Protein backbone atom coordinates (compact mmCIF):
# COMPACT_ATOMS: atom_id res chain seq x y z
CA UNK A 1 0.00 0.00 0.00
CA UNK A 2 2.89 2.35 0.78
CA UNK A 3 4.30 1.84 -2.72
CA UNK A 4 0.93 2.64 -4.31
CA UNK A 5 0.63 5.76 -2.21
CA UNK A 6 4.16 6.85 -3.12
CA UNK A 7 3.42 6.31 -6.82
CA UNK A 8 0.25 8.36 -6.61
CA UNK A 9 2.05 11.17 -4.82
CA UNK A 10 4.80 11.21 -7.43
CA UNK A 11 2.17 11.32 -10.18
CA UNK A 12 0.51 14.21 -8.38
CA UNK A 13 3.80 16.07 -8.13
CA UNK A 14 4.45 15.61 -11.85
CA UNK A 15 0.90 16.74 -12.66
CA UNK A 16 1.40 19.83 -10.52
CA UNK A 17 4.58 20.61 -12.43
CA UNK A 18 2.73 20.31 -15.75
CA UNK A 19 -0.15 22.42 -14.45
CA UNK A 20 2.19 25.23 -13.45
CA UNK A 21 3.72 25.12 -16.92
CA UNK A 22 0.26 25.30 -18.49
CA UNK A 23 -0.74 28.25 -16.33
CA UNK A 24 2.34 30.13 -17.38
CA UNK A 25 2.44 29.31 -21.08
CA UNK A 26 -0.71 27.38 -21.97
CA UNK A 27 -0.49 23.95 -23.62
CA UNK A 28 2.91 24.71 -25.08
CA UNK A 29 4.16 25.75 -21.65
CA UNK A 30 2.89 22.48 -20.14
CA UNK A 31 4.73 20.41 -22.77
CA UNK A 32 7.94 22.36 -22.25
CA UNK A 33 7.62 21.99 -18.48
CA UNK A 34 7.14 18.21 -18.69
CA UNK A 35 10.07 17.83 -21.09
CA UNK A 36 12.18 19.92 -18.75
CA UNK A 37 11.15 17.71 -15.81
CA UNK A 38 12.06 14.58 -17.76
CA UNK A 39 15.49 15.98 -18.64
CA UNK A 40 16.12 16.94 -15.02
CA UNK A 41 15.14 13.48 -13.80
CA UNK A 42 17.48 11.79 -16.30
CA UNK A 43 20.31 14.01 -15.09
CA UNK A 44 19.42 13.36 -11.44
CA UNK A 45 19.24 9.60 -12.05
CA UNK A 46 22.86 9.46 -13.17
CA UNK A 47 24.46 12.24 -11.12
CA UNK A 48 22.44 12.95 -7.96
CA UNK A 49 24.44 10.68 -5.64
CA UNK A 50 27.81 12.17 -6.59
CA UNK A 51 26.40 15.70 -6.41
CA UNK A 52 24.92 15.19 -2.94
CA UNK A 53 28.09 13.63 -1.53
CA UNK A 54 30.21 16.38 -3.07
CA UNK A 55 27.91 19.06 -1.64
CA UNK A 56 28.39 17.59 1.83
CA UNK A 57 32.19 17.17 1.42
CA UNK A 58 31.79 13.46 2.19
CA UNK A 59 34.94 11.35 2.46
CA UNK A 60 34.84 7.72 1.36
CA UNK A 61 36.26 5.25 3.89
CA UNK A 62 37.33 1.64 3.53
CA UNK A 63 38.69 -1.30 5.51
CA UNK A 64 41.93 0.57 6.17
CA UNK A 65 40.58 3.98 7.18
CA UNK A 66 37.43 2.87 9.08
CA UNK A 67 37.59 -0.93 9.46
CA UNK A 68 34.89 -1.30 12.12
CA UNK A 69 32.32 0.92 10.43
CA UNK A 70 32.87 -0.70 7.03
CA UNK A 71 32.69 -4.19 8.55
CA UNK A 72 29.41 -3.29 10.23
CA UNK A 73 27.88 -2.05 6.98
CA UNK A 74 29.12 -5.17 5.19
CA UNK A 75 27.43 -7.44 7.76
CA UNK A 76 24.18 -5.49 7.61
CA UNK A 77 24.20 -5.43 3.81
CA UNK A 78 24.65 -9.22 3.83
CA UNK A 79 21.69 -9.52 6.20
CA UNK A 80 19.60 -7.40 3.84
CA UNK A 81 20.73 -9.37 0.75
CA UNK A 82 22.20 -6.19 -0.74
CA UNK A 83 25.48 -5.49 -2.53
CA UNK A 84 28.04 -3.76 -0.38
CA UNK A 85 27.45 0.02 -0.68
CA UNK A 86 30.15 2.65 -0.55
CA UNK A 87 30.62 4.10 2.92
CA UNK A 88 31.24 7.79 3.56
CA UNK A 89 31.96 9.94 6.60
CA UNK A 90 31.05 13.63 6.71
CA UNK A 91 32.93 16.03 8.95
CA UNK A 92 29.91 17.65 10.59
CA UNK A 93 29.18 17.93 14.32
CA UNK A 94 25.43 17.41 13.88
CA UNK A 95 24.54 13.72 14.36
CA UNK A 96 22.86 12.50 11.16
CA UNK A 97 23.07 10.04 8.28
CA UNK A 98 21.63 9.45 4.81
CA UNK A 99 21.71 7.04 1.88
CA UNK A 100 21.93 7.87 -1.79
CA UNK A 101 22.35 6.14 -5.16
CA UNK A 102 20.14 5.29 -8.13
CA UNK A 103 19.96 1.56 -7.29
CA UNK A 104 21.39 -0.97 -4.80
CA UNK A 105 24.35 -1.66 -7.09
CA UNK A 106 25.36 2.03 -7.00
CA UNK A 107 24.37 2.93 -3.45
CA UNK A 108 26.23 4.80 -0.75
CA UNK A 109 25.59 5.38 2.95
CA UNK A 110 27.01 8.33 4.84
CA UNK A 111 27.24 9.23 8.52
CA UNK A 112 28.45 12.42 10.15
CA UNK A 113 31.25 12.46 12.68
CA UNK A 114 28.70 13.88 15.13
CA UNK A 115 26.62 10.71 14.83
CA UNK A 116 29.62 8.41 15.26
CA UNK A 117 30.61 10.27 18.43
CA UNK A 118 27.13 10.44 19.95
CA UNK A 119 25.80 6.90 19.43
CA UNK A 120 27.05 3.59 20.74
CA UNK A 121 27.81 0.69 18.43
CA UNK A 122 24.38 -0.92 18.59
CA UNK A 123 22.68 2.40 17.85
CA UNK A 124 24.98 3.07 14.89
CA UNK A 125 24.09 -0.40 13.58
CA UNK A 126 20.40 0.54 13.85
CA UNK A 127 20.97 3.74 11.90
CA UNK A 128 22.98 2.02 9.17
CA UNK A 129 20.27 -0.65 8.90
CA UNK A 130 17.69 2.11 8.43
CA UNK A 131 19.74 3.62 5.61
CA UNK A 132 20.19 0.22 3.97
CA UNK A 133 16.41 -0.20 4.16
CA UNK A 134 16.11 2.95 2.03
CA UNK A 135 18.51 1.36 -0.46
CA UNK A 136 16.58 -1.93 -0.44
CA UNK A 137 13.28 -0.09 -1.05
CA UNK A 138 14.91 2.09 -3.74
CA UNK A 139 13.77 5.14 -1.78
CA UNK A 140 16.99 6.92 -2.67
CA UNK A 141 15.89 7.15 -6.30
CA UNK A 142 12.31 8.07 -5.36
CA UNK A 143 13.41 10.87 -3.05
CA UNK A 144 15.92 12.17 -5.59
CA UNK A 145 13.21 12.43 -8.25
CA UNK A 146 10.90 14.06 -5.70
CA UNK A 147 13.49 16.68 -4.81
CA UNK A 148 14.25 17.33 -8.49
CA UNK A 149 10.61 17.90 -9.46
CA UNK A 150 9.93 19.98 -6.35
CA UNK A 151 12.96 22.13 -7.12
CA UNK A 152 11.83 22.56 -10.73
CA UNK A 153 8.37 23.63 -9.54
CA UNK A 154 9.98 26.27 -7.35
CA UNK A 155 12.04 27.50 -10.30
CA UNK A 156 8.90 27.74 -12.46
CA UNK A 157 7.10 29.53 -9.65
CA UNK A 158 9.86 32.13 -9.47
CA UNK A 159 9.54 32.64 -13.21
CA UNK A 160 5.78 33.08 -12.80
CA UNK A 161 6.36 35.67 -10.08
CA UNK A 162 8.58 37.79 -12.32
CA UNK A 163 6.27 37.32 -15.29
CA UNK A 164 3.29 38.46 -13.24
CA UNK A 165 5.13 41.47 -11.88
CA UNK A 166 6.63 42.61 -15.16
CA UNK A 167 3.84 42.15 -17.65
CA UNK A 168 4.05 38.45 -18.52
CA UNK A 169 0.23 38.34 -18.44
CA UNK A 170 0.12 39.98 -21.87
CA UNK A 171 0.91 36.61 -23.40
CA UNK A 172 -2.31 35.27 -24.91
CA UNK A 173 -1.31 31.69 -24.09
CA UNK A 174 -1.53 32.50 -20.42
CA UNK A 175 -5.07 31.82 -19.10
CA UNK A 176 -4.37 33.82 -15.94
CA UNK A 177 -3.62 37.45 -15.35
CA UNK A 178 -0.66 38.86 -13.49
CA UNK A 179 -2.35 38.36 -10.11
CA UNK A 180 -3.03 34.71 -10.93
CA UNK A 181 0.61 34.13 -11.81
CA UNK A 182 1.71 35.64 -8.53
CA UNK A 183 -0.68 33.28 -6.73
CA UNK A 184 0.90 30.37 -8.64
CA UNK A 185 4.31 31.54 -7.48
CA UNK A 186 3.09 31.31 -3.87
CA UNK A 187 0.86 28.22 -3.96
CA UNK A 188 2.78 25.92 -6.33
CA UNK A 189 5.92 25.55 -4.13
CA UNK A 190 3.64 25.07 -1.13
CA UNK A 191 1.81 22.24 -2.88
CA UNK A 192 5.09 20.66 -3.95
CA UNK A 193 6.37 20.87 -0.37
CA UNK A 194 3.27 19.14 0.99
CA UNK A 195 3.57 16.28 -1.51
CA UNK A 196 7.30 15.97 -0.83
CA UNK A 197 6.58 15.79 2.90
CA UNK A 198 3.96 13.08 2.40
CA UNK A 199 6.32 10.93 0.31
CA UNK A 200 9.19 11.37 2.76
CA UNK A 201 7.08 10.49 5.81
CA UNK A 202 5.69 7.38 4.12
CA UNK A 203 9.16 6.13 3.24
CA UNK A 204 10.65 6.90 6.68
CA UNK A 205 8.13 4.72 8.53
CA UNK A 206 8.78 1.86 6.11
CA UNK A 207 12.56 2.24 6.42
CA UNK A 208 12.30 2.14 10.22
CA UNK A 209 10.38 -1.13 10.05
CA UNK A 210 12.68 -2.84 7.54
CA UNK A 211 15.79 -1.41 9.19
CA UNK A 212 14.71 -3.02 12.47
CA UNK A 213 14.35 -6.32 10.65
CA UNK A 214 17.80 -6.00 9.06
CA UNK A 215 19.63 -5.43 12.35
CA UNK A 216 17.30 -7.73 14.30
CA UNK A 217 16.78 -5.29 17.18
CA UNK A 218 14.12 -2.55 16.83
CA UNK A 219 15.24 -0.95 20.10
CA UNK A 220 18.71 -0.24 18.69
CA UNK A 221 17.12 2.10 16.16
CA UNK A 222 14.59 3.45 18.67
CA UNK A 223 17.39 4.39 21.07
CA UNK A 224 19.35 6.02 18.23
CA UNK A 225 16.34 8.08 17.12
CA UNK A 226 15.82 9.31 20.67
CA UNK A 227 19.40 10.59 20.82
CA UNK A 228 19.28 12.01 17.29
CA UNK A 229 16.11 13.93 18.04
CA UNK A 230 17.94 15.83 20.76
CA UNK A 231 21.24 16.04 18.92
CA UNK A 232 19.97 17.62 15.70
CA UNK A 233 18.25 20.38 17.66
CA UNK A 234 21.33 21.07 19.76
CA UNK A 235 23.76 21.33 16.83
CA UNK A 236 22.82 23.27 13.66
CA UNK A 237 23.78 21.91 10.24
CA UNK A 238 24.72 24.94 8.18
CA UNK A 239 25.19 22.92 4.98
CA UNK A 240 21.61 21.67 5.19
CA UNK A 241 20.33 25.13 6.14
CA UNK A 242 21.90 26.57 3.00
CA UNK A 243 20.34 23.84 0.83
CA UNK A 244 17.14 22.62 2.55
CA UNK A 245 15.94 20.76 -0.57
CA UNK A 246 17.95 17.72 0.52
CA UNK A 247 16.71 17.71 4.15
CA UNK A 248 14.35 14.79 3.48
CA UNK A 249 17.31 12.53 2.65
CA UNK A 250 18.52 12.44 6.27
CA UNK A 251 17.36 10.03 8.97
CA UNK A 252 16.50 13.03 11.18
CA UNK A 253 15.43 16.48 9.99
CA UNK A 254 18.70 18.47 9.87
CA UNK A 255 16.98 21.87 9.78
CA UNK A 256 16.80 24.05 12.83
CA UNK A 257 13.01 24.33 12.81
CA UNK A 258 12.99 28.12 12.72
CA UNK A 259 10.38 29.83 10.59
CA UNK A 260 8.42 27.71 8.11
CA UNK A 261 10.66 24.68 8.72
CA UNK A 262 8.90 24.09 12.04
CA UNK A 263 5.50 24.13 10.31
CA UNK A 264 6.35 21.93 7.32
CA UNK A 265 8.63 19.13 8.47
CA UNK A 266 9.83 16.58 5.94
CA UNK A 267 10.02 13.87 8.61
CA UNK A 268 7.43 12.10 10.74
CA UNK A 269 7.22 13.00 14.40
CA UNK A 270 10.15 11.31 16.12
CA UNK A 271 8.02 10.21 19.08
CA UNK A 272 5.67 8.39 16.68
CA UNK A 273 8.58 6.63 15.00
CA UNK A 274 10.00 5.52 18.35
CA UNK A 275 6.58 4.32 19.51
CA UNK A 276 6.18 2.17 16.38
CA UNK A 277 9.61 0.62 16.92
CA UNK A 278 8.80 -0.08 20.56
CA UNK A 279 5.59 -1.79 19.48
CA UNK A 280 7.56 -3.80 16.93
CA UNK A 281 10.06 -4.82 19.62
CA UNK A 282 7.19 -5.89 21.88
CA UNK A 283 5.64 -8.06 19.21
CA UNK A 284 9.04 -9.59 18.40
CA UNK A 285 9.57 -10.52 22.04
CA UNK A 286 6.09 -12.02 22.28
CA UNK A 287 6.68 -14.18 19.20
CA UNK A 288 10.02 -15.33 20.64
CA UNK A 289 8.38 -16.83 23.75
CA UNK A 290 8.85 -20.59 23.78
CA UNK A 291 5.72 -22.68 24.44
CA UNK A 292 7.87 -25.20 26.33
CA UNK A 293 7.99 -24.47 30.10
CA UNK A 294 7.07 -20.84 29.36
CA UNK A 295 10.69 -19.81 28.85
CA UNK A 296 11.91 -17.47 26.15
CA UNK A 297 13.66 -19.27 23.33
CA UNK A 298 17.37 -18.71 23.09
CA UNK A 299 17.43 -17.87 19.42
CA UNK A 300 19.76 -15.61 17.49
CA UNK A 301 18.19 -14.54 14.20
CA UNK A 302 20.38 -14.12 11.18
CA UNK A 303 19.61 -10.40 11.15
CA UNK A 304 21.05 -10.08 14.65
CA UNK A 305 24.52 -11.06 13.46
CA UNK A 306 26.04 -7.62 14.20
CA UNK A 307 25.19 -8.23 17.89
CA UNK A 308 26.93 -11.60 18.03
CA UNK A 309 30.27 -12.33 19.65
CA UNK A 310 31.94 -10.45 16.84
CA UNK A 311 30.15 -7.26 17.90
CA UNK A 312 28.20 -4.85 15.72
CA UNK A 313 31.40 -3.47 14.21
CA UNK A 314 32.22 -6.89 12.77
CA UNK A 315 35.37 -7.49 14.79
CA UNK A 316 36.20 -9.41 17.94
CA UNK A 317 37.33 -7.26 20.80
CA UNK A 318 40.97 -7.83 21.72
CA UNK A 319 40.32 -6.80 25.34
CA UNK A 320 37.89 -8.02 27.99
CA UNK A 321 34.51 -6.37 27.82
CA UNK A 322 34.15 -3.15 29.80
CA UNK A 323 31.18 -0.87 30.50
CA UNK A 324 29.95 0.58 27.21
CA UNK A 325 30.41 4.24 28.09
CA UNK A 326 33.97 3.89 29.21
CA UNK A 327 34.87 1.72 26.24
CA UNK A 328 33.32 4.00 23.64
CA UNK A 329 35.32 6.98 24.94
CA UNK A 330 38.67 5.22 25.13
CA UNK A 331 38.60 3.42 21.81
CA UNK A 332 39.42 4.93 18.46
CA UNK A 333 36.49 6.15 16.48
CA UNK A 334 35.70 4.16 13.30
CA UNK A 335 36.52 6.97 10.89
CA UNK A 336 39.98 7.57 12.36
CA UNK A 337 42.95 5.88 10.80
Explain how this protein is built:
60% of the residues lie in helices and 5% in strands. It has 337 residues and is mainly α. The protein has one domain. The longest helix is centred in the first third of the chain and has 54 residues. The protein is elongated and about 60 Å long.
Mean pLDDT: 75
Structural category is mainly alpha
Report the principal-axis shape. elongated
Helix content, binned percent: 55-70%
- Helix count, per DSSP? 10
- Low-confidence stretches are 259-263, 290-331
Number-wise, the strands total 4
The count of domains is 1
Looking across the biggest beta sheet, what order are the strands in?
Answer: 1-2-4-3
Approximate strand percentage: 5-15%
- Alpha-carbon distance between the two ends: 45 Å
Largest pleated sheet: 4 strands, mixed
Radius of gyration: 22 Å
Q: What is the succession of H and E elements?
A: HEHEEEHHHHHHHH
Short account of what is shown:
The protein is mainly alpha-helical and 337 residues long. Helices cover 60% and strands 5% of the residues. Strands 1-2-4-3 form a 4-stranded mixed sheet, sandwiched between helices.
